[in-house]
Amino acid sequence: MSELPRGWRWASICDLCDLVRGVTYAGNEAHTQPADGLIPLLRATNIQSGRIVTHDLVYVPRRYVAPRQYLRSGDLLIATSSGSRDVVGKAAPAGSAHEHYAFGAFCSVARPRTAEAAAWLRLFLRSAAYRAYVESVAFGASINNFRSTDIGNLPLPLPPPGDRRRISTRLDSLLARTARVRDELAAIPPLASRYRQAILTAAASGSLTRAWRAKAASPVWRRTRLVDVAQAIFDGPFGSNLKSSDYTSCGVRVVRLENIGHLRFLHDRQTFISADKHAALIRYSLRPHDILISSFVNEEIRACLYPSDLETPAINKADCFCIRLDEQVCDPKFLAFRLACRTTHSLFRAAAHGATRPRIRLGQLRAFEFDLPPIDEQREIVRLAEGAFARLDRLIASWTRASSLAPRLDQALLAKAFRGALAPEDTPDEPAVAGSGV
């Protein structure tokens, strides 16, 4: 154990709390719906991110629950048994809203004897030191068990009562600020997604290049069908033409639905066929600048350009439509942006068939109508949109870094608090004295 500041001492949970074991009950008397005479029971799954959540409950007859097994405000609910080492030891404080809930046998409660003890222990159970202790003692053949004796023997640093109050208050304030930062950071991805769609809408409608068009005296946009600007639009082989048994560990790449993202080719999932099989399916071969689009209409249109840096040739699979454009008339990136916008999504969604997995047919894709600007304006739209997306990507990269730092900041604050660096060792109203009461 590390050295403590003057006046601090090592204590255990048993010095501050009473431990209460959870409710045991007959499995055939557990219910999934509330009813008269049944008590809602919290389990380890109801402890999430340091909070108690009250969904996915079981309900047991009142006779199984002793008075002490009802939660009280200030209790610390702890998961004591689980097949997952990540779950065992999870803890969350109970509030007044939880006082009519009981807790199951795979949980225990640490019931602090004072409000000061409750505040101190609530904070300590969020620390990396607590997590390290759990992982050092919670073991089992198939179920990891955090035994009552190990909970009771949990060592924690304990300052004098006055310092404890001051540290708890200050730490709560600092952690509330980091929580607000996390909430603000959590709002950024939805905002970024809406901004990305706004860029695509502006690209498709012409508002992105309104100023450019005024200066360039560009011709008006014309209504066209996709089939009229394409050299080819085709689906991949289906049925017996390409079976799972045709796949090999290497060879010619097969582009599948899993590879088509929203304006992004996803390289992770790789499937191959042999060169001989590719020779039989040569007409499905893909080329750089081809546009790939999923036939399924999900929350967003999945369309992207086929990448030019794949190490092998490739074909598309069924339901992975390929569009090969006349690039003198239509820029592939412009069309990808047009396909990916919400306007197209709404059109395809309305035209889609299939109740569980709505999809469009190849003929519907060929007949898709859109407003096509002159090729010079298409290229200007692509330039402006890509510049806006690059700025957005830099923002998301900064968000990713900041989001990864927030939990580390919490742990840094907790570590600092529990080594006595958030409050002075001595204060005028209460000098630190070794052996002060709990």
TrEMBL record:
Gene Ontology molecular functions: DNA binding
InterPro entries: Restrct_endonuc_typeI_TRD_sf, Type-I_RE_S_subunit
Keyword field contains Cytoplasm: no
Gene Ontology BP, a term: DNA restriction-modification system
Keyword annotations from UniProtKB, A to Z: DNA-binding, Restriction system
Keyword Cytoplasm annotated: no
PANTHER family: TYPE I RESTRICTION ENZYME ECOKI SPECIFICITY SUBUNIT, TYPE-1 RESTRICTION ENZYME ECOKI SPECIFICITY PROTEIN
Protein known as: Type I restriction enzyme, S subunit
